[in-house]
Amino acid sequence: MAHTKRQTTTKKWPIKRKGTKFVVVPRSHKKQGIPLLIVIRDILKLVNNRKELKQILNKGEIKVNGKIMKDEKVSLLLFDIISIEKAGKQYQVLISKKGKVKIQETKDQKTKISKIIGKKILKGVKKQINLSDGRNILVKEDMKTGDSIVFNFIKGKIEKILGLKEKAQVLVIGGRHIGEKGEVSEVKENTAEINLPAGKFEIKKQNLMVIGE
């Protein structure tokens, strides 16, 4: 199992710098993600160690975005939904205004928001969008890179397209305003002007995620 020294882990993870010398690293999205083990053991404190979590996983009692998880190293990303079946609880992966991962309890969440980071035309004129969480989905609708989708992971379909446009509600996911929410006032070629609590700022599109209309 791949590990890294606790002292060298990203400061985005809200874990103590002191403790076991090594901690597990996420299987993918190493810069953006956080391992399921760290969330369940170190943040939520629902288990005492990896062995306890493995026992729960082997029973199929934990789901991520509606899918049973067996891997404690699976990388959890922004807006992912963790369901603890036996306890009847759900948690969502969020981001704080300091840029740290935040795990918050939520209720009956069957959807998650993902950002469109790329798209292409496949054979047969099929359109595919590439999402920030690593998924690729075939679509019929017209969507732009930088838009977001609301995906119902129970029904397995897109419920809504959230365009990066004037008056859209956005979350800043990078840069010095990370974690802040605001409204788009103008969209430019590579940036957008966003009304944040502290005023209007021009922010790169790569650092924005549309979360509402």
Quaternary structure state of the chains depicted: single chain
Number of helical elements: 2
Largest sheet: 5 strands, antiparallel
Poorly predicted regions: none
Question: Quick one: CATH class of the largest domain?
Answer: Alpha Beta
- Overall number of domains: 3
Structural class: mainly beta
CATH topology of the largest domain: Structural Genomics Hypothetical 15.5 Kd Protein In mrcA-pckA Intergenic Region, Chain A
Helix content: under 10%
Distance between the termini: 42 Å
What can you tell me about this protein's structure?
- With 213 residues, the protein is mostly beta strands.
- The protein has helices at residues 36-43, 50-58, and strands at 3-5, 22-24, 34-35, 62-64, 67-68, 75-76, 81-84, 89-95, 101-106, 111-122, 126-131, 136-139, 148-152, 157-162, 169-172, 181-187, 191-196, 199-204, 208-212.
- The radius of gyration is 18 Å and the shape is globular.
- The termini are far apart.
- The mean pLDDT is 89.
